[in-house]
Write a structure and sequence with these properties.
The chain has 124 residues and is mostly beta strands. 0% of the residues lie in helices and 46% in strands. The strands form 2 sheets. Strands 2, 4, 5, 6, 9, 10 and 11 form a 7-stranded mixed beta sheet that branches. Strands 1-3-8-7 form a 4-stranded antiparallel beta sheet, with no helix packed on it. A hairpin with a 5-residue loop joins β5 and β6. It starts with a strand and ends with a strand. The model has no long low-confidence stretch (mean pLDDT 94).
């Protein structure tokens, strides 16, 4: 298992939560990584990405509220989520570039390795 998410649970609307994703094996937090989510009955959608050179990108619906960051010393990716809304209820998946797609210093992201996801709910 190369990606393991943690931090799911339950939080009230307006609250904060941090998700984490531990990497192992051929997957490194120094490569491009990202977070996706899948709400009940909906398709999986992108939340945010961070490239090997540290460039971050966010979907419009989380800009200003979510922060994606990597801790290379701990081989971990995190997603800090603030001012949560009820529609944030979903399974959140961590994704990463496999070793053969990882280019140090690249601003592009090619995600092809997935974690199993962690669920959290936002209640009103």
């Amino acid at each position: 298992v190369q990606l393991v998410e943690s931090g799911g649970g339950s939080v009230q609307a307006g609250g904060s939560l941090k998700l984490s994703c531990a990497t192992s094996g051929s997957v490194s937090s120094s490569c491009g990584m990202g977070w996706f989510r899948q709400a009940p009955g909906k398709r999986r959608e992108l939340v945010a990405t961070i490239s090997a050179d540290g460039t971050t990108r966010y979907e419009d619906y989380v800009k200003g509220r979510f922060t994606i960051f990597s801790d290379h010393a701990k081989n971990k990716l995190s997603l800090q989520m603030n001012r949560l809304k009820t529609y944030a209820t979903a399974v959140y998946y961590c994704a990463a570039e496999p070793g053969w797609l990882c280019y140090p210093g690249s601003s592009a992201v090619s995600l092809d390795v997935w974690g199993r996801g962690t669920l959290f709910t936002v209640s009103s």
